[in-house]
Amino acid sequence: MLTRRELLLAPLLLMACQRKTGGSQRPLFAAETHPESYPTTRALHAIDRILADRTGGEMRVRVYSGGQLGSEADTLEITIFGGLDLNRVNLAPVNSIVPETMVLALPFLFRSVAHSRAAFDGAPGRVILDAMTPHGLKGLCYYDSGARSFYNTRRPIRTPDDMRGLKVRVQNSNIYVAMVQALGANPTPIPYTEVFQALVQGVVDGAENNWPSYESSRHFEVARHYSMTNHVLAPEVLVASMHTWEKLDHAQREHLQAAVDGSVPIMRELWDARVEESRRRVLEDGIELVEDVDHDAFASRMRPVWDRFLTTPRLRELADQIQALDAPPPAEARHAGDHAPRGNQQ
Ligand code: GTR
After folding, report:
1. N or C terminus of the chain with fewer C-beta within 10 Å?
2. Where is the composition biased (Basic and acidic residues) (predicted)?
3. 192 Cβ below 6 A of ligand 1
């Protein structure tokens, strides 16, 4: 019997082949796990609009939102095979494919959102996007994902000890598994679109995410204790299949990259507004917000994760470069819609 992945792959590969034989008329297919109203999905539609403008409608993007094509891990594989042209995913599922991406997922790496943006927009960000090429993915851009924090159905979390024994859903990445283990909790990798049900059924007690995902996924309706651990600020990433990229001519590549670059500031504005909006919505709904988190305790408990995953001089150098980056001072950062993580180890 065919697996779900094979069933998915067959028609997509077929359609992808039409690009080769039928010229450039077919739109680029893009996978997205979030619903239509989410900032990342809106950014993909912005790319479509900019591309259509630049090319007189010759190049378009068709967005498959809401996770309808499968989990991020699955669609990423399909993208590498060439069955999907574009894919917007979190960096987590890329961690096992491109080791350099793990650096951006290190816990308490960034001092603030402004610091994370300096890394994404600067040389380290470029190096990490380029590191994807030999793995079949063209890294096109990063999108903000803000700070991730733990939330759960059971109790307020202030110290790592409060996490002991909790079953926590994580993304499909060993670094997230290790982080949760380092806190004495039990990590369970589950695709994003299945987490709500897992929380309702008690398969897991909690998860971790940013404000917009916590709100948009409705996890807040079940997991009512949100603790501002702000432990990771890894970004979202937009990738193209190298199969697709190689079929585009020079001008088409330029159009696509320009449209993608144009979508980044649009997404950033949408993101900052959505962070505020989502935070307000869930607070109005009455969730318990735990702000007096012992960040130093979390950071030192997770510190061994750095040593475990920074296994080569190249990875260590990337982490050092990011730590050494200047970022706007806190006042300016706050002005930029910042929600600076506090209490990191630097
Ligand atoms: C969100 C992210 C998604 C997905 C999700 C998750 O913040 O935007 O791409 O990675 O988290 O936790 O799986």
Report:
1. N
2. 332-346
3. yes
Number of domains in the chain: 2
Give 321 Cα–ligand 1 centroid separation in angstroms: 26
130 and 159 share one domain = no
Rounded to whole angstroms, the maximal C-alpha distance in the chain is: 60
**Both 164 and 306 in a single domain?**
yes
Q: Please indicate whether residue 145, judged by its CB atom, sits closer than 6 Å to ligand 1.
A: yes
Closest approach atom of ligand 1 to CA 208: 12
CATH number at residue 178: 3.40.190.170
Q: How many CA atoms lie within 13 A of 138 on its CB side?
A: 18
| Mutation to probe ligand 1, out of 86, 148, 180, 192 (largest number of atoms < 8 A from CB) | 192
Residues paired with 289 in a beta bridge = 226
**Residue 345's pLDDT is what?**
33
Integer Cα distance of 158 and 137 in angstroms: 39
pLDDT, tens only, 269-295: 999 999 999 999 999 999 999 999 999
The structure's pTM equals 0.91
At 23, the pLDDT band (50, 70, 90 cuts) reads very low
pLDDT digits (tens, 9 = 90+) for 256-267: 999 999 999 999
Q: How far is the CA of 296 from the centre of ligand 1 (A)?
A: 25
* Boundaries of domain holding 98: 18-145+235-275
The percent of residues in the chain predicted with pLDDT above 90, rounded, is 87
Name the closest-CA residue to atom 3, ligand 1. 90
* 229/241 same-domain check: no
Same domain, 98 and 118: yes
Nearest ligand 1 atom to the CA of 207 is: 12
Tell me: do 319 and 228 sit in the same domain.
Answer: yes
For residue 252, the number of C-alpha atoms closer than 13 Å in the C-beta half-sphere is 16
